[in-house]
């Protein structure tokens, strides 16, 4: 009988900024996600405008802070996990989850980001959440920072561009790892750390309008350096505070194929992949890859880094590599006349050989196997797939059922390719958490109508609804996959 390895961690993944809500409760400070506008893309052109959807200006922030509106700033309410966490965790546990990936909202612990003492009410909230998880034997996998730096940190310090960001973040890490040392053994430092280049406000707290356009790319890489140092120090602190803990990095696995076999297209693909791997190369090997330093030199960047920084990065690399994978894309040296496709906060050439979702993301299960092999061959460290799923429009039938066979098909084929990566390619894979096990707000557009979950939440794009939770067809399907350790879909 085909099965996944014993101890394989099945589960699902969420993020505080997309589902938690309670934005003004429990002493929480305003975060960058609380000032992000809802958008309703009407066309592929709108969907391709990923940079415009993710970034913000001082003027937009001022307007957001002048109102308590939760319709056009929907991350303020999310799916109200803050008040539904017991119900939601029970539903997740009902599928037999071994692990639950979630994030701590930094601004719930340090409302401004620069305080010397944490907010006890915020710490107590996560105590209660973790206790609820452990009650069901569900291990938390916690992301320390997932697109929600405190807004005051962004406005008063220019976010991660300011070197003091390292001090602020490591103080936060020290607090949470000491507080939860008996409850959380698996940690991730920064969600999709590479995304600072694609959406610098969400990831780096950078307000682009404050900088000269010709200097902003250097600003992004300077902020990224500070995150690399902070991540290494987070590894150090976590191991000191929780000796049996494991700490991973997390990257956006954007998998590119050359559009043709022209050498120019293959070179373009190689260069694009380097733009992805440079972040994990740095966190896994503990030093900057030479090709990234060469890029800095060629562009005339002066990234301020000390010998102590480089020593810290070298001494405290991550224990494992986690990543998100949703789709693949094509690249070419010349894109003129080629059809473009949307993806996970990026755009690329549409692959004519594979289908696309309602939001233009191309569906490529084999690409997940390719990604696993590439990462494992490159690093020889354990991998953890912490995001994979299908955003789709779900229909509630008259009898209340939701027949999301398209989601089942997507996940089944991706899980089968994961199995092949393990059994045929020798990849060491720790676990798999789908994005997202319960409906929540889409990150880029802040829409609820782009649904991922096994659990339906009755709320629409404008915050209307009962917030009632109900199971979709995929709920029982995934429950069976977990109960059989994958054999239910591997032997048919």
UniProtKB/TrEMBL annotation:
Protein name in UniProt: Beta-glucosidase
One BP term from GO: carbohydrate catabolic process
Coiled coil: none
Protein keywords: Glycosidase, Hydrolase
Pfam families registered for this protein in UniProt: Glyco_hydro_1 (PF00232)
Keyword Hydrolase: yes
Active site: 387
One term under GO cellular component: cytosol
Gene3D superfamilies the record matches: Glycosidases
PROSITE patterns: GLYCOSYL_HYDROL_F1_1 (PS00572), GLYCOSYL_HYDROL_F1_2 (PS00653)
Family, per entry: Belongs to the glycosyl hydrolase 1 family.
GO-annotated molecular function: beta-glucosidase activity
InterPro entries recorded: GH, GH_1_N_CS, Glyco_hydro_1, Glyco_hydro_1_AS
């Amino acid at each position: 009988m085909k099965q996944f390895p014993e101890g394989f961690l099945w589960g699902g993944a969420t993020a505080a900024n997309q589902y938690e809500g309670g934005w003004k409760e429990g002493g929480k400070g305003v975060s960058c996600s609380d000032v992000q506008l809802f958008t309703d893309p009407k066309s592929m052109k709108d969907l391709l405008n990923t940079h415009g959807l993710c970034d913000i200006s001082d003027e937009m922030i001022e307007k957001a802070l002048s109102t308590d509106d939760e319709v056009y700033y929907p991350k303020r309410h999310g799916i109200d996990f803050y008040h539904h966490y017991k119900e939601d965790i029970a539903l997740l546990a009902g599928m037999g989850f071994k692990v639950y990936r979630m994030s701590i909202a930094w601004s719930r612990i340090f409302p401004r980001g620069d305080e010397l003492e944490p907010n006890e009410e915020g710490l107590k909230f996560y105590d209660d959440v973790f206790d609820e998880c452990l009650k069901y034997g569900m291990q938390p996998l916690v992301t320390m920072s997932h697109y929600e730096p405190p807004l005051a940190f962004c406005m008063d310090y220019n976010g991660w561009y300011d070197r003091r960001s390292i001090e602020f973040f490591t103080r936060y890490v020290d607090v949470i790892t000491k507080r939860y040392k008996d409850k959380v053994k698996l940690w991730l430092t920064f969600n999709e750390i590479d995304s600072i280049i694609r959406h610098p406000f969400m990831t780096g707290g950078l307000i682009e309008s404050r900088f000269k356009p010709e200097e902003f790319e250097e600003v992004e890489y300077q902020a990224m350096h500070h995150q690399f140092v902070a991540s290494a120090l987070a590894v150090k602190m976590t191991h000191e505070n929780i000796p049996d803990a494991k700490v991973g990095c997390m990257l956006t696995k954007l998998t590119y194929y050359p559009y043709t076999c022209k050498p120019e297209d293959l070179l373009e693909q190689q260069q694009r992949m380097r733009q992805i791997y440079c972040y994990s190369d740095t966190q896994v090997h503990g030093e900057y890859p030479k090709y990234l330093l060469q890029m800095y030199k060629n562009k005339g960047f002066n990234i301020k880094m000390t010998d102590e920084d480089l020593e810290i990065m070298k001494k405290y690399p991550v224990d494992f590599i986690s990543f998100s994978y949703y789709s693949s894309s094509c690249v070419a040296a010349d894109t003129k006349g080629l059809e473009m496709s949307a993806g996970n906060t990026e755009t690329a050439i549409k692959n004519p050989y594979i289908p696309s979702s309602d939001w233009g993301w191309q569906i490529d299960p084999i690409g997940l196997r390719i990604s696993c092999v590439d990462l494992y061959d490159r690093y020889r460290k354990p991998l953890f797939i912490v995001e994979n799923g299908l955003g789709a429009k779900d229909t509630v039938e008259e009898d209340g059922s939701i027949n999301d066979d398209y989601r089942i098909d997507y996940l089944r084929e991706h899980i089968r390719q994961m199995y092949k990566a393990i059994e045929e390619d020798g990849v060491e894979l720790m676990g798999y958490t789908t994005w997202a096990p319960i409906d929540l707000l889409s990150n880029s557009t802040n829409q609820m109508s782009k649904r991922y979950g096994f659990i339906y939440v009755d709320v629409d794009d404008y915050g209307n609804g009962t917030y009632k939770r109900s199971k979709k067809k995929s709920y029982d399907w995934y429950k069976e996959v977990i109960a059989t350790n994958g054999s239910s879909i591997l032997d048919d």
